[in-house]
C-alpha cells in the first residue's frame, strides 16, 4: 500500500520534492541570517540618529532663555522624534517600560550624552514599540523625548519575505520543466512498452541522458527480439495451418468416393471439425490476413447476413436490431467475431437474438441467448485463449477454445470492448461496444 | 456438344489426381499439370474451357501467374487457395479470376463452381462486364469483379454469394421481369441445393438489405411470374 502511494508520486514528483526541499531550507536559512543582521543594523542606525538628534537638541535648547525653550523644543520635534522641555521637573518615565540596549549604543555613538543622566525605556504602545527617554541639560532642567521607531509595517514585512521567494519560485518552475524534459524518454519508453505485442512495435530514438539511452537501446533490442519471436511463431503456425488444408482437401475428395453414406457422413463431420480448428487457429494467430483496414460498412446488414446464415443451418437465430447502421469497421474481423458469438449462443443457449444499435455515440452489438450463462467468477476467464469452461462438455465446432478470444481481439482492434454478462432474466449477453469512428 | 476441357494446375500430386478424377467422373476432360511452365505448354495443346489454378504453387506467385494468364486469354479462371482470407479472394477476383475455391473442398462444391463459371456466359459477356465491371442503380454501386455492393452513402453492404448472384441476375435484366424459375435455376447452379422457397427468402433478404429509411428496395414482385428490378442501371 505504502509503496504504491510512494510510487504514484512518480520520478518527476520526487525530483521536484527534492528540489523544493533544498530550496526551502536554503531560503529559510538565508532569511533568518539576513533578518538578524538587518534588524541589528536598523537598530544601531536608529540609536545613532536619535543620539545625534538629542545632542543637537540639548545644545539648541540650552542656548535659549527659559521662556524660549518650549518653543525651541517644539521646533525640534519632527515626525519621528518628539522633544519636550520639562523645566526642572523630571516627569519620570513610564513604569511599564523596560531598559533597552539602545542607551548603551547611543552613549557609545555620542559619548557626550554620558554625563547627561540619560534614561531610556522601550515602551510598547499598541503593537509598536516606542522609546521614551529623558536627559538633563547643563542647568539641571530636563529634556523629555520620545522616538517613534520605524517598525516595519506588515506590507514591508511581506514584501521582504516574498521578494527573495520570487527567484526561488522561478527556479522551481524552470527546473520542473527541465526535469520533465529529461524524463521524457522514460515516458516514451513506457508508451512503447505498452504497445509491444499489440501492433507493430516502434523503435525509440536513443535520446536523453546516458543511463536512459542505455535503457532505450536495450529496450529496442528486446522489442526487436520479441517481435521476431512472435513473427516466427505466427508464420510457423500459419504455414502449418495452410499446409494442413491440402491433405484435408485430399481427405475430403477421398471421402466423397466412399460408397457407404453413414461412413462418408462421419468422415465429412471429422473433416469439417478439423477445418474449423485450422480456421479458428489461423484467425487467432492472424496468419490469415494482412492487418485489415477499416472500411465504411453497414454493420446491421452484416449482422443480418450472419443471422440468416445461422437460420439457414437450422439455428434459432433472429435479428432484432435496426435495419441499417453504417460505421467504419474492419468487416472481416467483425464478421468473424459476430459469427463466433452467434455460434456460441446457439450452441450453449439454444437461441441467438442479435441486435445492432447506436447508444451514446457507440456502436453496440448484442447477442443474447437463453442458456445457463457463465458463473460470475469465470466470466473473465472464458475470454482467454484455449480456455473452455467445461472440458467434459461437447466441443463447439471451432473446437480450440479460441472463439471468444478472437471476439475480444476483434473488439480491441476497433478500439472497443467485449462484455459478457448474465442477464437477470436468465441467459448470457455478449455485448460488443465499439466507438463509432 | 463435346465435354468441356478443364486445365488443372496443382502442385500436390495426390490432390491433383483426386481433383482430376472428380472432374473426370463428372464429365469433364481434364489436363492436369504441376507447374507454371507445364501449364503454358498445356495451353498450346488445344482450346481450354476453364483453368483451375492453385495460387500457392511453389516457385511461382499464383497471383502473377493468374494475371499473366488473363493477359494471354479470356479463359475463365477459378483459383484454389489454402488461404481462406477475404483479401486473397478479392485480389484474385480483381485481377480477373472468375471464382474462388478455398481448400479444403469436396466434389460437390468443386463441380458446382466449375459448372457455374462455365454457365455464366461466354467470353463476350465477360468482356462487356469487364471494363470496370461496375453497375449503378438507385444510388447503389455493384462492383462485379470484387463481388461487392456499396450503399448510396458509400458503405459496404454485406451480401452472401447467393444474394449477390441474385442481385446480378436482377441487374442484368433491369426493368424486365425475370421468371422465378430462371432464378431458381440460377441459384441451383451455385448453391447446389436451392429449393423453390429459398429464392423467395433470398429476394426478401436482398430487399431488406437494399431498403433505406422511408423507401423500399427497387425490387418488384410480379405475381405469378417472377421479380423485376425497377431502377435504371448504368454500367461503367
Describe the SSE topology.
The complex is a heterodimer of chains A (437) and B (236).
Chain A: H1 2-8, H2 10-63, H3 69-76, E1 81-87, E2 98-99, H4 102-109, E3 119-125, E4 128-136, E5 142-148, H5 154-195, H6 210-256, H7 261-285, E6 295-298, H8 299-312, E7 316-319, E8 326-329, H9 331-349, E9 351-359, E10 362-368, H10 403-413, E11 417-422, E12 428-435
Parallel strand pairs in A: 7-9
Antiparallel strand pairs in A: 1-5, 2-3, 3-4, 4-5, 6-8, 9-10, 10-12, 11-12
Helix pairs in contact in A: 2-3, 2-4, 2-5, 5-6, 6-7, 8-9, 9-10
Chain B: E1 5-9, H1 13-25, E2 29-33, H2 36-44, E3 50-54, H3 62-72, E4 77-81, H4 86-94, E5 99-102, H5 107-119, H6 123-129, E6 134-137, E7 140-143, E8 148-150, E9 156-157, H7 161-172, E10 177-179, H8 180-191, H9 196-210, E11 219-222, E12 226-229, E13 233-235
Parallel strand pairs in B: 1-2, 1-3, 3-4, 4-5
Antiparallel strand pairs in B: 6-7, 6-13, 7-8, 8-9, 10-12, 11-12
Helix pairs in contact in B: 5-8, 7-8, 7-9
Order of helices and strands of chain B: EHEHEHEHEHHEEEEHEHHEEE
Residue share in helices of chain A? 40-55%
Mean pLDDT figure of chain A: 80
- CA radius of gyration of chain B is 19 Å
In percent, how much strand structure appears in the residues of chain A? 15-25%
Strand content of chain B: 15-25%
Low-pLDDT stretches of chain A: 1-7
SSE order of chain A, as H and E? Answer: HHHEEHEEEHHHEHEEHEEHEE
Q: What general form of chain A does the structure show?
A: rod-shaped
Biggest contact:
A-B, 38 and 37 residues
Question: Helix- and strand-based class of chain A?
Answer: alpha+beta
* Distance from first to last alpha carbon of chain B: 35 Å
Continuous helix count of chain B: 9
Structural class of chain B: alpha/beta
Strand order of the largest sheet of chain B: 2-1-3-4-5
Helical segment tally of chain A?
10
Alpha carbon gyration radius of chain A: 46 Å
Amino acid at each position: 500500500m505504502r509503496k504504491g502511494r510512494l510510487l504514484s508520486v512518480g520520478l518527476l514528483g520526487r525530483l521536484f520534492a527534492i528540489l523544493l526541499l533544498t530550496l526551502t531550507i536554503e531560503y529559510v536559512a538565508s532569511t533568518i541570517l539576513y533578518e538578524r543582521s538587518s534588524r541589528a543594523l536598523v537598530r544601531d542606525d536608529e540609536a545613532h540618529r536619535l543620539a545625534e538628534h538629542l545632542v543637537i537638541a540639548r545644545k539648541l535648547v540650552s542656548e535659549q532663555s527659559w521662556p524660549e525653550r518650549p518653543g525651541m523644543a517644539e521646533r525640534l520635534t519632527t515626525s519621528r522624534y518628539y522633544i519636550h522641555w520639562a523645566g526642572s521637573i523630571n516627569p519620570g518615565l513610564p513604569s511599564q517600560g523596560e531598559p533597552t540596549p539602545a542607551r548603551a549604543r547611543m552613549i557609545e555613538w555620542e559619548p557626550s550624552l554620558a554625563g547627561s543622566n540619560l534614561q531610556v525605556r522601550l515602551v510598547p504602545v499598541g503593537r509598536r514599540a516606542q522609546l521614551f527617554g529623558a536627559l538633563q541639560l547643563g542647568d539641571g532642567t530636563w529634556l523629555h523625548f520620545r522616538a517613534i521607531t520605524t517598525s516595519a509595517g506588515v506590507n514591508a514585512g511581506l514584501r521582504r519575505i516574498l521578494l527573495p521567494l520570487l527567484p526561488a519560485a522561478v527556479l522551481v518552475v524552470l527546473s520542473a520543466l527541465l526535469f520533465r524534459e529529461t524524463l521524457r524518454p522514460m515516458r516514451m519508453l513506457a508508451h512503447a512498452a505498452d504497445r509491444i505485442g499489440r501492433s507493430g512495435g516502434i523503435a525509440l530514438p536513443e535520446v536523453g541522458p546516458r543511463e536512459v539511452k542505455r535503457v532505450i537501446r536495450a529496450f529496442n533490442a528486446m522489442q526487436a527480439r520479441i517481435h521476431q519471436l512472435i513473427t516466427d511463431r505466427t508464420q510457423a503456425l500459419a504455414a502449418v495451418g495452410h499446409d494442413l488444408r491440402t491433405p484435408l482437401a485430399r481427405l475430403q475428395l477421398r471421402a466423397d468416393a466412399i460408397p457407404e453414406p453413414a461412413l462418408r457422413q462421419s468422415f465429412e463431420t471429422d473433416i469439417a471439425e478439423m477445418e474449423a480448428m485450422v480456421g479458428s487457429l489461423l484467425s487467432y494467430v492472424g496468419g490469415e490476413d494482412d492487418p485489415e483496414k477499416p472500411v465504411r460498412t453497414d454493420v446491421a446488414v452484416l449482422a443480418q447476413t450472419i443471422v440468416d446464415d445461422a437460420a439457414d443451418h437450422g439455428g434459432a437465430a433472429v435479428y432484432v436490431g435496426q435495419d441499417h447502421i453504417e460505421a467504419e469497421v474492419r468487416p472481416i474481423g467483425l464478421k468473424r467475431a459476430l459469427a463466433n458469438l452467434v455460434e456460441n449462443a446457439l450452441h450453449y443457449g439454444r437461441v441467438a437474438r442479435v441486435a445492432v444499435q447506436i447508444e451514446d455515440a457507440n456502436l453496440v452489438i448484442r447477442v443474447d441467448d437463453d442458456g445457463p450463462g457463465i458463473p460470475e467468477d469465470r466470466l473473465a476467464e472464458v475470454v482467454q485463449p484455449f480456455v473452455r469452461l467445461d472440458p467434459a462438455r461437447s466441443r463447439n465446432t471451432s473446437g480450440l477454445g479460441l472463439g471468444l478470444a478472437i471476439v475480444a481481439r476483434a473488439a480491441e482492434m476497433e478500439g472497443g470492448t467485449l462484455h459478457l454478462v448474465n442477464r437477470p432474466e436468465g441467459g448470457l449477453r455478449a455485448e460488443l461496444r465499439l466507438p463509432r469512428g | 456438344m463435346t465435354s468441356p476441357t478443364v486445365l488443372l494446375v496443382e502442385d500436390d500430386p495426390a490432390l491433383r489426381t483426386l481433383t482430376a478424377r472428380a472432374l473426370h467422373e463428372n464429365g469433364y476432360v481434364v489436363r492436369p499439370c504441376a507447374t507454371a511452365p507445364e501449364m503454358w505448354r498445356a495451353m498450346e495443346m488445344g482450346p481450354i474451357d476453364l483453368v483451375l489454378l492453385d495460387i500457392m504453387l511453389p516457385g511461382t506467385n499464383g497471383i502473377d501467374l493468374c494475371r499473366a494468364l488473363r493477359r494471354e486469354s479470356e479463359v475463365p479462371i477459378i483459383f484454389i487457395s489454402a488461404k481462406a482470407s477475404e483479401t486473397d479472394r478479392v485480389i484474385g477476383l480483381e485481377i480477373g479470376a472468375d471464382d474462388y475455391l478455398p481448400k479444403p473442398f469436396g466434389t460437390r462444391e468443386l463441380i458446382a463452381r466449375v459448372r457455374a463459371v462455365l454457365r455464366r456466359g461466354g467470353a463476350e459477356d465477360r468482356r462487356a462486364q469487364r471494363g470496370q465491371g461496375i453497375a449503378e442503380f438507385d444510388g447503389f454501386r455493384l462492383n462485379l469483379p470484387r463481388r461487392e455492393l456499396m450503399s448510396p452513402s458509400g458503405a459496404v453492404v454485406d451480401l452472401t454469394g447467393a444474394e449477390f448472384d441474385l442481385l446480378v441476375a436482377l441487374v442484368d435484366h433491369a426493368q424486365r421481369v425475370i421468371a422465378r424459375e430462371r432464378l431458381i435455376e440460377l441459384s441451383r447452379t451455385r448453391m447446389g441445393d436451392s429449393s423453390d422457397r429459398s429464392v423467395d427468402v433470398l429476394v426478401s433478404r436482398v430487399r431488406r438489405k437494399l431498403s433505406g429509411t422511408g423507401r423500399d428496395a427497387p425490387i418488384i414482385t410480379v405475381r405469378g411470374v417472377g421479380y423485376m428490378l425497377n431502377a435504371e442501371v448504368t454500367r461503367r
